[in-house]
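The instructor's notes for this session suggest beginning with a concrete chain rather than abstract definitions. Hand out the sequence below and ask the class to guess, before any prediction is shown, which regions might be ordered.
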Amino acid sequence: MIRTVQGRKILFVAGIVFALLIVILFFSLFFFSSGRQAKNTVETFYEYEQQGYYSESWEMFHPYMQEKFQKGHYMEDRPHVFRNHFGVDTFSFSIGDVKKVNDWIMEEGKEPIDTAYRVTVYQGFSGKYGRFTITQHVYATETEDDWKILWDYAG
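After discussion, reveal the predicted structure:
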């Protein structure tokens, strides 16, 4: 009788440990998946842009993008377009679908990126030309250091 009670206790504890491991595995796959990380990266980038932290958003660019824009020029040009041309101080944004893309090319002459994630971004503006939304496919990829942002120039 004593062995049966101890056996049940051990089986019960083993069941709880197994259930906890399943829950941890589920959450780690859901919250730390590559698609989720790509989406979080794009969201962080646009939060920086929204707050006017263009230095921080530029740092999130993939080296291909950093070659395209010198940091100082980007920090001057980006807010100039929004404030002077659109007549807005800030914007809202939302993130749409995330899609994995293999062998993606940013622009002609660049090496393909093995795996990137296309994230659809909707930026909403209200300015001197009324209310409007810009839809852009933004790409995120994992580099040796971190997740990085790219824009599509392949046409």
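Then share the key points. Helices lie at 2-31, 34-51, 54-59, 63-68, 71-86. The longest strand covers residues 113-127.
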